[in-house]
Write a structure and sequence with these properties.
By secondary structure, the protein is an alpha+beta fold. The chain is built from 23 helices and 10 strands. The chain folds into 3 domains: about 15-60 and about 305-435, no CATH class; about 140-300, no CATH class; about 440-510, Arc Repressor Mutant, subunit A (Orthogonal Bundle), CATH 1.10.10.
Length: about 525
């Protein structure tokens, strides 16, 4: 075969290291970005935190503090102002704030608590002059469930062996306060090699005694192996009465009937009348199905918004949250020293000079990409606010249909870029803090020929369910018919999907006894 030369023209996308870093930084959450900045500060000597910096939109930070105080009912606005953005940066130049969103803890189906928004609040509490302040709630944000139980254990007069047995059970509790393993499994794990049945039975006996001590500690219900036992422990701590005794029987034997709201079978199984059943149900609904819930670490519920929405005349504007923006700069002393030094002779010295020059360029890229990341987030957020301005006045029921392509076309960006920007980025609004993806929703047809947002339809379903008669709850078919009367065409299956997304139980489980 005769060799020959050929010319071929083609186009391909080359991702430079700078572009790769820009894409990677754009999809990071605030916490991941902070970790990336800390790592870069340790690795690159040309990069340093900016100690003396001009306040970045301090008015925005103060407005954010004011909105948080109004929603959480906090007093002492002067304290919030004094804790606002200042000129003193930390070691990494990054601060975080705790936002105030609304927590809604309600029983779901009479046996479980949950929240509709998925964004919880960690309210600050001031116990000065509050005689009804619960010390358990104060400890909840500072110590774990295990630490709180060990504090109580130190106040007992148990022997060292019994205290060790109780401590083993405390270690076996999960975050809800339930025993993760059975006593038999725990005893088997403690049995030394070569142990016999007699030794195993002795361990079991000691663990049963330790479990009795544990279940008499606070919070009541801790150490249970299942929901039924947890509720019974709490009921037994109440004063004895007919409703309380009936509630114990229901929790032990008929909890499934109670969850299904099957009043007839409950009356037949217990022999109680309707009035007594309602009293027993009231007692059960007031119990805590997860005793360890109050000891959940507050840090797990903190969400730091990337942008803050403010009222500007008749419109709304978006500002960056100054507390999430890294304050970085290039070390001028090192950079000038490198520039003033000519490329030395010798292979080793040349390689060293080249490596330092590369690090300086890397630091400049990093600072530029950080700034570009926040500029992109600000542009996308402002475009979302302009499209959803009715939401900021009337709430989620006024949400409009919106897809990623619309924002991408408006800003001249790729759809994948909008997806990266709206993932794990949060916006603080007058109605709470939401992920940017929350403002996007599919379109549903209306009789008028227009479109309705799926988010607005979910909000409408929530309103209809909240206003229903508890004795005659609305079925999915009835909800679909009511939406159709308002000009919104939604199939029954779609209503069921939205209802489940809102964590609303079916009609038969919402029916009151």
């Amino acid at each position: 075969m005769k060799p020959s030369l050929q010319f071929r023209l083609s186009q391909h996308l080359a991702l430079t290291p700078q572009l790769q870093q820009s894409i990677r930084l754009l999809q990071l959450s605030t916490l991941e970005l902070h970790q990336e900045v800390e790592q870069m500060l340790e690795m690159n000597p040309f990069l340093e935190p900016e100690e003396e910096f001009a306040p970045l939109d301090t008015a925005a930070g103060l407005e954010f503090e004011r909105q948080r105080s109004e929603r959480t009912g906090e007093e002492g606005a002067s304290t919030s102002e004094s804790d606002g953005p200042s000129g003193d940066g930390d070691a990494g130049g990054i601060d975080t704030v705790e936002i105030g969103t609304t927590e809604r803890d309600d029983w779901e189906n009479g046996t479980e608590r949950d929240d509709f928004d998925g964004i919880r609040e960690t309210p600050s509490r001031n116990n000065d002059g509050d005689d009804e302040f619960d010390p358990l709630e104060r400890n909840a944000v500072s110590i774990s469930l295990q630490e709180f139980l060990r504090q109580q254990l130190l106040g007992t007069r148990l022997s060292e062996q019994d205290m060790a047995a109780v401590d083993i059970l405390i270690e076996s509790l999960n975050e809800d306060g339930y025993l993760a393993d059975t006593l038999e499994e725990i005893a088997a794990s403690l049995l030394p090699e070569g142990g016999d049945e007699e030794m195993l039975e002795e361990l079991l006996s000691r663990l049963r005694c330790a479990l009795s001590w544990l279940q008499h500690m606070e919070p009541t219900g801790v150490g249970a192996s299942n929901l039924s036992e947890c509720l019974v422990l709490q009921l037994k701590a109440m004063e004895e009465e007919a409703a309380r005794n009936l509630a114990i029987v229901i929790c032990q034997q008929h909890l499934e009937l109670l969850a299904r709201r099957d009043m007839r079978k409950l009356m037949a199984a217990t022999g109680a009348d309707e009035h007594l059943l309602k009293e027993a149900q009231g007692l059960i609904v007031g119990l805590e199905p997860k005793p360890g819930r109050r000891f959940t670490r507050a840090e797990a519920n903190i969400i730091v918004p990337d942008v803050i929405v403010q009222k500007s005349g008749r419109n709304w504007k978006v500002v960056l949250n100054p507390d999430v923006m890294p304050k970085l700069r290039i070390n001028d002393l090192y950079a000038q020293a490198l520039r003033s030094t000519r490329s030395p002779r010798g292979s080793a010295a040349t390689e060293s000079h080249t490596a330092l020059s590369s690090r300086l360029q890397e630091a400049r890229w990093f600072v530029k990409n950080i700034q570009q990341r926040f500029d992109t987030i600000l542009r996308v957020s402002q475009a979302i606010v302009d499209r959803q301005k009715n939401f900021f006045t009337h709430g989620e029921i006024a949400m409009k249909p919106l897809v990623l392509r619309e924002i991408a076309d408006e800003l001249g960006l790729h759809e994948s870029t909008i997806s990266r920007v709206t993932t794990a980025k949060y916006m603080n609004t007058p109605f709470g803090t939401f992920e940017l993806k929350y403002f996007f929703g599919s379109s549903l047809n209306t009789d008028a020929g227009g479109n309705a947002s799926s988010t607005a339809v979910r909000a409408l379903i929530k309103q209809l369910v909240a206003a229903e008669d508890p004795k005659k709850p609305l079925s999915d078919s009835q909800l679909s018919s009511m939406l159709e009367e308002q000009g919104i065409q939604v199939a029954r299956r779609t209503v069921a999907k939205y209802r489940e997304a809102l964590k609303i139980a079916p009609a038969n489980l919402r029916k009151a006894l």
